[in-house]
Amino acid sequence: EELERHNLFVVPLDDARRSYRLHDLFREVLLARLHATEPALLPVLHGRAARWYAEQGELREAIPHALVAKDAAKAAALITRAAPVLWLRGEAATVQGWIEALPDAVVLQHARLALDAALHLLESIHALAKEPYAQGLAPLERAIARVEGLIQHQPALPDAEVALIARRIGLLRAQIAARPILARGDVERMRLLVAEADALAEGETVGWKLTALALTFWLVESLQREGALLLERLAAAKREAIAAKDQRATLRVMRWLAFAYLSAGRLRPLEEESLEALALLEPLGARSATTGYFQFFLADAYYALNRLP
Hints:
The chain starts with a helix and ends in a 5-residue tail after the last helix. The chain is about 75% helix and about 0% strand. The longest helix is centred in the middle third of the chain and has 26 residues, at about 160-185. By secondary structure, it is mainly α. It has a domain at about 240-309. A two-stranded antiparallel ribbon has the order 1-2.
């Protein structure tokens, strides 16, 4: 309050004077002094910051503080809560970076989360050009190898859990293998990969089932140019994703549905699907590649219908 009255270094962020923004230089001076005089206090303060941000619902801000505080269990719990929205916003790399910072014991306890993060990272880089794809693939491969190594050295894990993790790693590797096959246009090899993925995805959750469905979509739409044949199957997958309340899976299927409607020349359903998807994305308040896809589909429909604004 004394600093504020003299207009020095701080700016209040609310009328109650509970939050302040510090001048960057002032912040650096305070941090340097803290490091020099009471370094043992740093983890404690970061822990308090993590708790405070979490209480305010600012999970994205809380997680780095929990990691610096070495409270890995707290960080993992916060990541679990924050990840679904961040994945929708196109921040798969951010989530992956946080999981990389967790110690092995915590990653093993949250192996499903680690593989979910790897899956969303893979989905986010699939359409990138060769060099950025390779850059994105490196942390993904590290994540897979890490989880594989951990489960191999932890015989205490239930057999069912080990089998589930192995299946999901198999699905990740199948999706990675699909990219060069698509580039070669190898229809027969893609058919074999689809059969392999379908077997791995049997009995899986919606999000992981879509890993196998993605391969089918690429085979039928990208290689055979017959995406319209998938309309019924995609509509069923959308209903399943909605029933599971998996918004990211829902939007992913809706994107494929839009492609299929475009292939079939069904412009009205294409328009409706695009508008519905954009309405789902709007509350997130962030632009992503997914938003761009549906804006493109909508523009295509309006152009064909001669309804451009």
